[in-house]
Design goal:
This protein is of the alpha/beta class. The protein is built from 4 helices and 5 strands. Helices cover 36% and strands 15% of the residues.
């Protein structure tokens, strides 16, 4: 899975995911630090990267608008902060859920990650 990490995720998470075999770039590595959510989504789509975010409100709407206009996207994964911690101690749970989600069809979907079950 090719993944883009939204701005709220630390670089250490990207490193752990790369160690797990994923092709991961952060928003900063994409040159989009501080840019709008539509810009981040557009860059993820252009690079065929699934977007990982906690920002369900904005990215669910942006995804729906994109699909309504006839566009397609590689997927949006939502890791709710109530389920997944960004702190180092919580990362293994998030990494496991992301690796499990990599086996699911994600094209044009917004998928909520679940602890211990992947997507």
């Amino acid at each position: 899975m090719r993944l883009a990490l939204d701005e709220m995720y630390p670089p250490g998470l990207a490193q752990e995911l790369r160690a797990g075999g994923l092709d991961v770039l952060t928003v900063a590595e994409l040159g989009l630090a501080g840019r709008s959510d539509p810009d981040v989504f557009a860059a993820a789509v252009a690079q065929r990267r699934v977007l990982l975010t906690e920002n369900v409100g904005d990215f669910a709407r942006i995804s729906a608008d994109h699909l309504t206009r006839g566009g397609h996207h590689p997927g949006v994964l939502i890791a709710l902060s109530s389920r997944f911690s960004r702190r180092p101690a919580g990362r293994p749970t998030l990494v496991a859920a992301l690796l499990a989600a990599g086996g699911e069809p994600l094209d044009d979907r917004v998928v909520y990650l679940r602890r211990g079950q992947g997507a």
